[in-house]
Amino acid sequence: MRTETTDTIPRALRNNLRAAWGRAYVRVIGVNRELSWLLMDIFMPLFNIAAYVYLYRSMGAPRAYDGFVILGALMTAYWLNVLWSMAAQFYWEREIGHLELYMLAPISPMAVLFGMSFGGIFQTTVRAVATVAMGALIFGVRFQVANPLAVLGIFLLTLVALYGLGMTAASLFLVYGRDAWNLSNLFQEPVFLLSGINFPVKALGFWTAAAACVIPLTLGMDALRQLVFDDPGIGFISLGWEVLGLAASGAITLLAAWKALKYLEDLAKRQGRLTLKWQ
Amino acid sequence: MAIGEVSIEKKEGPRPCQSFREAWRSFAPAAWLGWQIESNWTDLFTFSVFTLVRPLSGALIVVVMYLVATRTNTQTDLFAQIYTGNALFTYLGGVLFGMSWVIHEDREHYEMIRYVYIGTSHLYWYLLGRAVAKFLVTTLSIVILLAAGKLALGLRLYWATIDWPYFLTAFTLGIISATGLGLALAGWMMITARQAGMVSEVAAGVFYLACGFLFPIDILPHWVQAVARWVPFTWWNEGMKRGLFGHGNSQALAGLSNGTILNWLALSTVVFGVLSFAAFFGAERLAKRRGILDQLTSF
Fold first, then answer.
1. Which residue among A33, B75, B128, B248 is the one 20 to 30 A from A114 at the CA level?
2. Count of domains for chain B
3. Does A58 sit within 8 Å of B216, measured CB to CB?
4. Distances in Å between the alpha carbon of B270 and those of A81, B180, B207, B233?
């Protein structure tokens, strides 16, 4: 009996790790499979970057503001990936018939979500880094990174919190039909506004900015801005609080993802909507 | 034809130039269907919030950027130009995405395009009908955006000084251009599988950048300005702003009379329209020849 248990646990773990890698693999290998996607993903955001950079310039803003736009474009890529390739993903998977296979397989759906996250981060990083490098080169933006490790640490914390949120949202969207599409749309511009994608979030005023800190992107953006721009008055709150907030946010969203997945998977099964297409 | 044989004479599909009655039979249900798809996924309140929140947030991003950069108030001519330009651009983005996405949605998601295509009216009328719902929703959000700008931000836009005939002429010509381009993109969707959404976003991004909706084209590199002058949306933006404010925001175009702006808009609309329609019908023929009109790619 004891032997069986010890055998079972590693096997379950192994299955889940393989499932996570399998789900991530599609996105990792998919980076270069569709050249038109790669090119569009890299060049498409450049138009928005250029539009906002020229807008700042036309208003006579300091050149440092160009950097806000570039940094904003970097994090925008991750947020869009969280929305469309995490939150709405189970909705798409249901439409094309993969979701039922995930549920039938001897794995936890959390493994699929983790795989989606790793794959999504890899996929987005390749594109976002290329976009940001080109944007910085074209507009002559220089980031003053005094502490690269701190930047990397905060960046990774932000990603954990963001993708944790995406995993939670994926479960929530499972019970929605076409609303999933609309919800993803709804969480674009309002989140860009509240998280201060193109400007220091403190410009929104204390209370609005404080409320916006519920979104991990707000804390992450503000912390990164403080680290890569040489402007002591740019931050909303101190870096220490932001790191704490991001860490807490990451833990809460991952726990919420696990709870939400169990609850909503059960709900969707009971309502018979787990495989229901074209709602 | 022997008894039991099925006629397959309709080889090329219905012609686009049909009687008004025939066209209406496709156009009106398509407009109604478009409205249902846009709105029936939720209750009226949620739909209203959804319709307003996105454009309002987009506008507020520009408002905050303006306040951060200029450190002045919003009762300036510069702000009025930026705010209205951003609001009016919503039409272009909405129409381009709305029309091109229909192909992808009906082919891949609802799997209905084959039935629409073999109907009595041309697909062209169906697409135009579907665009109507998007146009109406966008109009509603723009009206509210401008009203909010006027009431909450003191937008310098005065009802009495608007040159309505000029504005409406420019507006109509621009919408025709946008519809033409929307059709061309819909054609592109028919012969591609995996660029859904991206193509219209790229197109919208290019025009957002190059046509002066947010800032004067004068600030762009010269070669971009030269290209922008061949695009109807540059003249559309200039024409609408002249109608609304009495002047545009570009020094490079300031020397041109209102009539010249409208002439350029009309000319570029015709050229753009002809090219767009040719692209749409060419793509349609190609898709039919390749047998991919209703091909599912599970994307």
1. A33
2. 1
3. yes
4. 39, 10, 18, 12
- Report yes or no on B5 lying in a domain: no
Cα–Cα distance for residue pair A91/A79, rounded to 1 Å: 18
Across the interface, of B42, B61, B298, the residue whose CB is closest to A189 is B61
> pLDDT truncated to tens, each residue of chain A (279 aa)?
444 555 666 888 898 999 999 999 988 887 767 777 778 888 888 999 999 999 999 999 988 899 999 999 999 999 999 998 888 888 888 877 888 888 888 888 889 999 999 999 998 998 899 989 999 999 998 888 888 999 999 999 999 999 999 999 888 777 666 667 777 888 899 999 999 999 999 999 999 999 999 999 999 999 999 999 878 788 999 999 999 999 999 999 999 998 988 887 787 778 776 776 655
The rounded distance, in Å, linking the Cα atoms of A22 and A119 is: 10
Whether A40 and B214 lie within 8 Å, measured CB to CB: no
Candidates A52, A61, A188; nearest CB to B54:
A188
Residue B299 belongs to a domain: no
Q: Which domain holds residue B185?
A: 20-290
Residue B179 lies in a domain: yes
Within 8 A of B76 by CB-CB distance, chain A residues are none
- ipTM of the shown complex: 0.88
Residue B229 belongs to a domain? yes
**Chain B contact probe: residue of A99, A189, A229 with most B CBs at under 10 A:** A189
Count of A-B CB contacts under 8 Å: 104
B41, B50, B201 member nearest A44 (Cβ): B201
Torsion of CA A176, B198, B135, B158, to 10 degrees: 110
In angstroms, the Cα distances linking B54 to A101, A143, B48 are 35, 31, 11
